[in-house]
Amino acid sequence: MSEALNAGKHVFCEWPLGNGSEEARKLAELARQKGVVAAIGTQMRYAPEVTYLKQLIADGYVGKVLSTTLIGAGGSWGNEITEDHYYLYVQASGATLQAIPLTHTLAGLTEVLGGIDQLSARTLTHFDHVKVIETGDLKKKNTPDQIMIHGTLQGGAALSVHYRGGITRGTNLLWEINGTEGDLQVTGENGHGQIVQLAIKGAKGEEKDMKTLLPPPIAYDGWPSFSGARNVAHLYAIIAEDVRTGSRKAPNFEDGVALHDLIDRVERFAQANKINNKPPSSE
């Protein structure tokens, strides 16, 4: 990627941007120096359902947002894996439960509700080894399979997040937004909010039961036949506009650095809590 940036080329990088915040910061600085379009693939932000949710919140569907709760299953990061995906269980690879599905989905959550302010976090590792499906061999695992975050959003709403490895027999993506006037509920088949088809339910005012809301208006979804790939299609269209016009609407490397910093905060709190049950004094 550095070679492309040094050559003055526009760059699109799938998330994560780098293997850790230090590498991400170097890439962001290089992109800034070269003045190119340098975009990251946090495409949940451009899912039609997420754009629709953002408008519902802005229009006051739930009134003042009081809290939001997110539960997700990562698919991988359980107790077995295929050989070619074993790298997901090696912390040094940078492809962890917190780095991929959790951060992808938090990028969508914060697009709708605003940034995260204060947080505390814990991680748990139930499996020290993972079974390779093809061979039955056990390989060492040093990535967490349970992540818990509590905190507040910049608007003051309470935030509760629980991501777990594997797939459950229950709900594998549940995101609720609760407010003074109404409630919204978003579900999906897995915790990868960037690719899964999302369904929205809501209730407000005198309504007692959740009802399925209509699909997002066509204005939010120019590629309805693309299924999960439509989020990427929306993002590509924004990148193309940036290249043609000089705008900077697509999520860029600086946004990527902020997400890496968020992962760092979660991991730092989790490590501190693991050692002494107290968060770092610097946060």
UniProtKB/TrEMBL annotation:
Gene3D superfamilies: Dihydrodipicolinate Reductase, domain 2, NAD(P)-binding Rossmann-like Domain
Keyword Cell membrane among UniProt keywords: no
Ranges of residues in domain Gal80p-like C-terminal: 48-188
SUPFAM superfamilies attached to this UniProt entry: Glyceraldehyde-3-phosphate dehydrogenase-like, C-terminal domain (SSF55347), NAD(P)-binding Rossmann-fold domains (SSF51735)
Alphabetically ordered keywords of this record: Oxidoreductase
Residue ranges constituting the Gfo/Idh/MocA-like oxidoreductase N-terminal domain according to the UniProt record: 3-41
InterPro entries recorded: Gal80p-like_C, Gfo/Idh/MocA-like_OxRdtase_N, Gfo/Idh/MocA_oxidrdct_glycsds, NAD(P)-bd_dom_sf
Name under which the protein is recorded: Dehydrogenase
Lineage: Bacteria, Pseudomonadati, Bacteroidota, Sphingobacteriia, Sphingobacteriales
Keyword Transmembrane (UniProt): no
